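Section: protein folds

Sequence with per-residue C-alpha cells
===
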Amino acid sequence: MNELSWIFLLAVIIYFILELYLGRRHIVHIKSHRATVPDEFKSDIGLAEHKKAADYSIARKKLGLIEAAYGAVLLLVWTLGGGFELFDKLWRTLEFNPVWTGIFFLLSVSLVMSLLELPFAWYRTFSLEEKFGFNKTTVKIFFTDLIKNAVLSLIIGVPLLWVVLWMMQSAGGNWWFYVWLVWLGFMLLMLLIYPTLIAPLFNKFKPLTDAELKARIDSLLERTGFKTNGIFVMDGSKRSGHGNAYFTGFGKSKRIVFFDTLLESLNPDEVEAVLAHELGHFKHNHIKKGILLTAIMALAGLWVLGFLIDKEWFYQGLGMSTKSDYAALVLFFAVVPVFMFFITPVMSWFSRKNEYEADSFASKNASANDLITALVKMYKDNASTLTPDPLHSLVYDSHPPAPLRIAHIKQVR
C-alpha cells in the first residue's frame, strides 16, 4: 500500500460516515414528525397516509444505508482487496490482444458486480415495495428485464468499449479528448433513439386517446410554442403503483409520456398543470444545460484520467500491479464517486433550482392551484414524506421538500 491507498481508505471511511450521519438524521427527523400532519396538508392528507409515507421513507433509507455499507466493503474488496487484480490476471493468461482483454475484463467485472447487487434489487422490489403496496412486478417481468438489460448492454456496450479502448491505445497523448467526443456523440445518439427503439422493449406506449385531455394539452403546447413527436401513455402500472410524467428524446424525437397510474389519479386540470411544469424544464433549457454540465464534467474527468493513466502509483495504490488502459478505466470510475461526494449537494441545488423555475412557469401558463393539488395527490399516492430532514434534503434531494415547494408556488401564482 502506498500513500494513495491510505488516502483512498480514509476517503471511503469519511464518505460512509457522512452517508450514515445524514441517513440517521433523516430517519430521526421523520420519526419525530410522524404523528402529526403538517398544517398546510391536513385538509388533503390523512394521518394514516402521512404515517405510511414516513414508514416508507424510513424503510427506504434504512435499506439505502445497508446498501451503502455493503457497497463500501465491496469497493475495498475490488480495489485494495485485490478483486480487480484477480480478474486482470485471469484474463491476461488467455493472451488476447489488449483491446479484447480489456473488453472481457470489463464485461466480467460488470457481470459479477450486477450479481452481487441482485439481492438488493430483489428485496427492494418483492419485499419493501410489496409491503407498501407499490410493487406490480412479477418474477417473470423481473428476470425478463434483467435479460433484456444484459443483451442491450452487450449490443451497445461492446462496440463502444472497443472504440474507447482502441482510441486509448492508438490516439496518442490526447486520447482523452477523442474519447470524450465519442462519448458525447454516443450520449446524444441514445437521447435520439431511446424513446422509439429502447423504451418500447420494456413498456408499451400508446397515443393519448382521451379527446378532452388531448385538446387541453394541444392548446397548452400551442400557446407555449412547444413541438413534440407525440403524447403517449405508458403502462407504468405493469411494474409499480407509482405515478409520474416526463419528457424524453431530443430534437425531433421529443415526446411527452404519462404513466397510466398518474392519469388515473389526476383530473384533466391537474394533468395540464403537471405537463406545464414539464414544459417549464424545456422552456428554461434545463435539458440542454444538464447535457452541457454533464459534458463539461465528463471532459474534466477524462482529462484527469489522462494524467493518471501512466502513473504507477495510481494502479498500485488501488490494488493493481499492472498498468493498462482498461485497468485505468475501471479504477477511475470505481473511486470517483468517493472523491467527488462534495459535488452531490451542488448538483442537488442545481436540480432544485430547475424545479422551482419549472413550477413558476407552470403557475403562469396553467393553474397554480391545480399544480398544488396535483403535487399533493402525487405526494400522497407515492408515499413521499412531507417532513424530510433539511440537511439530508439539502445534500441529496433533486426536488424541493413539499412544504417549500408548495409555498413557492403560492408565492408566484
About this structure: The CA atoms of residues 36 and 47 lie 7 Å apart.
